[in-house]
């Protein structure tokens, strides 16, 4: 099953999803496509003529370009998402994760998709981490029957 | 075929990035390997990389964490050599998560042992009377 992760560039969440046998949907995949495609001077800062169309699906033209640009990257991931793991208020808000409005919009869109969602907090102690990993493993195990039904 | 890059972050007491690099070279697959301070970056075809890294993870299942990276090793948009030094974008994220990797490793071990963790302990807020008492204690008499 394709599992959207938030923060979308999280090492821990990407690793967990892959470790437990699902396909993580992370922003790196989309950035990688931009980097590998010819004709972009400075990916992912540059965009293709197609990208604004994806961004405009979610936000009006008055909305800051950064939100629309980020949404154009996140659109393929949101479209493919069959489940999601969300970390509440992550400390990490750098780079592609640095836009609070995009992050709010992504969370809102995920809630609207009516897919299974797991919400967690980042662990700070070993006990918290045990609960964090246990919840993720149980959530991902619960998704497996859905994959088999397909 | 899709060419991708994956980051192997090593947080292990029994494994060094150089050990993993040697294992990767031994496979003689068509891949690019770069050793870094946090682990290894590997670039190659997805069909080659995915099964290869599944085997590499077995070297230390609790000490190896893997994620995809958008940029290939030495990519001029990200490489510090062409950006006049400084932390590359994405490093701060990695650094923040790297701090909690030992906890995650311990949690994965506990999960494999079959431990079921108890509910999270809620920290109580400071009682208002206790706060007033602390304020009174620390007040400087005029």
Keywords:
heterodimer, A: 150 residues, alpha/beta, Rossmann fold, 4-stranded parallel beta sheet, 6 helices, 11% strand, globular, B: 142 residues, alpha+beta, Alpha-Beta Plaits, 4-stranded antiparallel beta sheet, 39% helix
Write the layout of secondary structure elements.
The complex is a heterodimer of chains A (150) and B (142).
Chain A: E1 2-6, H1 11-19, E2 23-25, H2 27-36, H3 51-56, H4 65-80, E3 83-87, H5 100-112, E4 117-120, H6 126-149
Parallel strand pairs in A: 1-2, 1-3, 3-4
Helix pairs in contact in A: 4-5
Chain B: E1 3-10, H1 17-26, E2 32-35, E3 39-45, H2 46-57, E4 64-69, H3 91-113, H4 128-138
Antiparallel strand pairs in B: 1-3, 1-4, 2-3
Question: Quick recap of the structure?
Answer:
With 150 residues, chain A is an alpha/beta fold. Helix content of chain A is 52%, strand content 11%.
Characterise this structure.
The complex is a heterodimer of chains A (150) and B (142). The mean pLDDT of chain A is 86. By secondary structure, chain A is α/β, with parallel strands linked by helices. Chain A has helices at 11-19, 27-36, 51-56, 65-80, 100-112, 126-149; strands at 2-6, 23-25, 83-87, 117-120. Chain A has a single domain (2-144), classed as Rossmann fold, CATH 3.40.50. The longest helix of chain B is centred in the last third of the chain and has 23 residues, at 91-113. Chain B has helices at 17-26, 46-57, 91-113, 128-138, and strands at 3-10, 32-35, 39-45, 64-69. In chain B, strands 2-3-1-4 form a 4-stranded antiparallel β-sheet, covered by helices on one side. In chain B, 39% of the residues lie in helices and 18% in strands. Chain B has one domain (3-113): Alpha-Beta Plaits (2-Layer Sandwich). Chain B is built from 4 helices and 4 strands. Chains A and B meet through helix 1, helix 2 and helix 6 of A and strand 1, strand 4 and helix 3 of B. Chain A: Pfam families: DUF2112. Chain A: It comes from Candidatus Methanoperedens nitratireducens. Chain A: This is Methanogenesis marker 5 protein.
């Amino acid at each position: 099953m394709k599992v959207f992760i938030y923060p979308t560039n999280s090492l821990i969440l990407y690793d967990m999803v892959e470790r437990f046998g699902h396909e993580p949907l992370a922003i790196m995949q989309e950035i990688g496509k931009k980097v590998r495609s010819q004709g972009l001077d400075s990916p992912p800062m540059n965009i293709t003529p197609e990208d604004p169309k994806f961004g405009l699906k979610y936000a009006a033209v008055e909305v800051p370009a950064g939100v629309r640009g980020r949404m154009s990257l996140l659109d393929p991931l949101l479209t493919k998402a069959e489940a999601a793991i969300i970390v509440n208020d992550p400390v990490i808000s750098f780079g592609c994760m640095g836009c609070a409005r995009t992050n709010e919009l992504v969370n809102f869109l995920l809630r609207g998709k009516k897919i299974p969602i797991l919400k967690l907090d980042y662990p700070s102690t070993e006990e918290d981490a045990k609960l964090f990993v246990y919840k993720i493993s149980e959530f991902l195990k619960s998704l497996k029957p859905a994959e088999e039904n397909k | 075929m899709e060419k991708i890059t994956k980051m192997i972050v090593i947080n292990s007491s029994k494994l060094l990035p150089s050990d993993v690099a040697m294992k990767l070279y031994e496979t003689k697959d068509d891949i690019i390997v770069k050793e870094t301070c946090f682990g290894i970056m590997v670039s190659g075809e997805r069909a080659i990389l995915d099964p290869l890294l599944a085997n590499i993870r077995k070297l230390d299942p609790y000490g190896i964490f893997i994620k995809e990276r958008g940029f290939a090793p030495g990519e001029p948009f990200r490489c510090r050599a062409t950006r006049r030094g400084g932390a590359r974008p994405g490093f701060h994220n990695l650094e923040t998560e790297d701090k909690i990797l030992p906890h995650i490793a311990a949690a994965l071990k506990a999960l494999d042992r079959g431990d079921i963790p108890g509910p999270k302990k809620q920290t109580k807020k400071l009682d208002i009377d206790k706060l007033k008492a602390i304020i009174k204690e620390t007040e400087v008499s005029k």
